[in-house]
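Field log, afternoon session.

UNIT: design team B
ACTIVITY: writing a sequence onto a fixed backbone
BACKBONE:
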């Protein structure tokens, strides 16, 4: 691959992780980053050699770029297309990292950039944001979706694929229509439902917050994504509103059907619904790559005694395994596994499971 000059408009978790991965792989790239203001974290990126040049305006500085990644919020990325059009060279590839593709692909076509624009969506993320939380492994084994169009040059699509492959991501191409329908079903609507569940509990809680006090286990798991950025999800909902609306209508139908089954006290039908849902859920590959936050968790059964947590931390520390987070599950909704250990990688989680099992700790599976 020839030397490539890459431009980044916005440089947070995704853009930073992409750049870190490419630099780690020794890719022959130089990285130019636009930022609106001075940022000590980005200065650190320069010191580390991840960023080759920081710029404070989207201007002719970007005219030498071979590929530009738009890493701002969905609506802002569309605005940057207009700004970049008179600046970039005709051979420059434009792409983005947003989770909605229809609006920006249509905008690129409308302003005459469809030949150069290839929609992109790395399906990876974290509960943390910003370049300071970017890692060179975030995209490994994650799906990276591309939505090329008939006007793109095959060699441009191939070049972008080769660059993405260097990050360890799995590149898949599909139409922007299919992309937005899929993400509405598996990500956007679940976020809306999570928000609705949180509001349901909040608005029906007692004055002494008993529901909040006991909310753990299943409720916390299913509503974790409700804590995502309100501004980001406002833009996503407005950009993909038709697909989200259609699946919400379907979900409303499912709930209405369940209400009717409950009213009829049809126990067998209820059992069948849970069984069929469980069968399908269990058939989903256990991949940790999605736009829902990635985590590598172990649930460990521990005795309620002084020093129990410290013992586990010491055992893992002695084997050079770092713990990212520790949580105690007070709600015994689950029979076992009152300690949740969050590790930094799949390999760490696997090794920790083996080590703790050797020390007679019981690891609880919650796949």
């Amino acid at each position: 691959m020839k030397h490539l000059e890459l431009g980044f408009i916005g440089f947070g978790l995704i853009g930073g992780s992409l750049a870190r991965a490419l630099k780690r792989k020794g890719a022959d790239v130089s990285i130019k980053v636009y930022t609106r203001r001075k940022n000590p974290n980005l200065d650190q990126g320069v010191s580390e050699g991840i960023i080759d040049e920081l710029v404070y305006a989207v201007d002719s500085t970007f005219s030498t770029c071979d590929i530009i990644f738009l890493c701002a919020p969905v609506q802002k990325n569309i605005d940057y297309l207009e700004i970049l059009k008179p600046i970039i060279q005709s051979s420059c590839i434009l792409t983005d990292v947003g989770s909605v593709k229809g609006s920006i692909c249509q905008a690129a076509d409308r302003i005459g950039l469809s030949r150069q624009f290839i929609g992109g969506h790395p399906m990876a993320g974290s509960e943390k944001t910003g370049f300071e939380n970017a890692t060179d492994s975030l995209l490994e084994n994650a799906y990276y979706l591309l939505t090329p169009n008939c006007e793109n040059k095959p060699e441009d699509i191939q070049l972008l694929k080769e660059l993405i492959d260097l990050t360890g991501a799995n590149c898949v191409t599909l139409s922007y229509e299919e992309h937005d329908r899929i993400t509405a079903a598996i990500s956007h609507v679940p976020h809306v439902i999570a928000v609705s569940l949180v509001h349901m509990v909040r608005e029906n809680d007692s004055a002494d917050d008993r529901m909040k006090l006991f909310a753990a286990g299943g409720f916390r798991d299913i509503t974790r994504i409700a804590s995502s950025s309100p501004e980001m999800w406002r833009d996503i909902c407005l950009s993909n509103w038709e697909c989200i609306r259609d699946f919400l209508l379907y979900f409303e139908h499912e709930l209405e059907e369940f209400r009717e089954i409950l009213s009829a006290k049809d126990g067998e039908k209820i059992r069948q619904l849970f069984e069929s849902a469980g069968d399908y859920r269990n058939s989903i590959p256990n991949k940790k790559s999605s736009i829902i936050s990635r985590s590598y968790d172990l649930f460990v059964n521990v005795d309620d005694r002084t020093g129990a947590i410290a013992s586990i931390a010491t055992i893992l520390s002695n084997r050079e395994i770092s713990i990212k987070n520790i949580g105690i599950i007070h709600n015994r909704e689950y029979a076992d596994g009152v300690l949740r250990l969050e590790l930094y990688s799949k390999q760490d989680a696997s090794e920790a499971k083996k080590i703790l099992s050797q020390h007679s700790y019981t690891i609880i599976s919650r796949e």
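LOG NOTE: The longest strand covers residues 4-9.
NEXT ACTIVITY: expression trials, pending approval
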